[in-house]
Amino acid sequence: MNADLSPRRLVPALTALGCLLLPLLSTPPQTAAAAPVVPTAEAAPAVAGTMAVAPYEYLGWGNPQKPTDVMAATGVKWFTLAFILSDGGCNPKWDGSRALTGGSDESAIKSIRGAGGDVVVSVGGWSGNKLGEKCSSASALAGAYQKVIDAYHLKALDIDIEDTEFSNATVRQRVVSALKIGKTNNPGIVTYVTMGTTTNGPDANGKDLINKGAAAGLANDGWTIMPFDFQGHSGTMGSVTVSALEGLKAAVKSAYGYSDDAAYRHIGVSSMNGKTDESDETVSTNDFQTILGYAKQHHIARFTFWAVNRDRQCGSGGDAGSSCSGFGQSPYAFTKIVAQYAG
């Protein structure tokens, strides 16, 4: 995979430590379902300009744009900021190295809020030390999540679970249990779980993660897939994304006993703009329009992408990477499409 394209897949070295590497304003009501007992909310409402549309921006990578400039140019009010990692133990830091408060990350969040926006903070990604693995228990992991929530008085948290954190059944259970604790201790907080996918929806690990969430009674607001890096697909990236989302909807419906409408309202998509890590994949603005149409039709919980950093055309002779899409486009073309979604 190309490290320059997707640090949620493989991030370049950011510090001497090496390679390191969220809407909804209410928690769904809970009612008794068949076995297991799980939340059965019929809606997870999203409001225009809120976290239902919160594109990823990685402030430690890819010549990031000033968030307030992005807001002014596109109308987007929310960002999903990446990534919180372990500092080597059960302690959260930006990229595993930068303190939560007192630095440039906190300053960026304050500037976004000062301009009338807000942030979802993303924990995880592909590379680096994962809190889900470094924290030895669900309660300890919940405590690490709580440090992030408290640092910024968050309304939403995204757990981007990938690589070894995703493939380990014990860690998957730990993440689900920690999120359940977090939902209990922070009434009203929105949680997203973001993971890879096949062309037909979540793989066995993804389905197991959703099933574990349902069994635990985790009222997760948005199970989100990343429909790219398929290692082979047919059709447009827009059409294969729809296929993957339908598979996700089916998995969430089956696990939680939701109606079709409720299941759609608890799924989300995090695409990639332009060229991905796979040579046969380019996600075009037309593909984003296809995804937008699907999102509007079904009122999904989340429509986001990786990443604002790449939402611009490469210079002459440049290749897609950390700071451009590899696709012929005007500045912020993808962000402006996502910004049309109102939940």
Describe the SSE topology.
Blueprint: H1 7-10, E1 13-15, E2 18-19, E3 56-58, H2 67-74, E4 78-86, E5 92-94, H3 104-114, E6 118-125, H4 131-134, H5 138-152, E7 156-161, H6 163-167, H7 169-185, E8 190-196, H8 204-215, E9 222-226, H9 237-256, H10 260-264, E10 267-272, E11 274-275, E12 282-283, H11 285-298, E13 302-306, H12 333-338
Parallel strand pairs: 3-4, 4-6, 6-7, 7-8, 8-9, 9-10, 10-13
Antiparallel strand pairs: 1-2, 4-5, 11-12
Helix pairs in contact: 5-7, 7-8, 8-9, 9-11
Structure description:
The protein has 343 residues and is an alpha/beta fold. It contains 12 helices and 13 strands. The protein has helices at 7-10, 67-74, 104-114, 131-134, 138-152, 163-167, 169-185, 204-215, 237-256, 260-264, 285-298, 333-338, and strands spanning 13-15, 18-19, 56-58, 78-86, 92-94, 118-125, 156-161, 190-196, 222-226, 267-272, 274-275, 282-283, 302-306. Residues 9-48 have low confidence and may be disordered.
Structure summary:
The chain is α/β, with parallel strands linked by helices.
- Poorly predicted regions are 9-48
Radius of gyration: 18 Å
Outline the biggest β-sheet. 9 strands, mixed
> Roughly how much helix do the residues carry, as a percent range?
25-40%
Give the mean pLDDT.
88
Structural class: alpha/beta
Number of DSSP helical runs: 12
- What is the chain-wise order of helices and strands? HEEEHEEHEHHEHHEHEHHEEEHEH
Taken as a percent bin, the fraction of beta residues is 15-25%
Shape, per Cα inertia axes: globular
Q: What is the count of β-strands?
A: 13
Distance between the termini: 33 Å
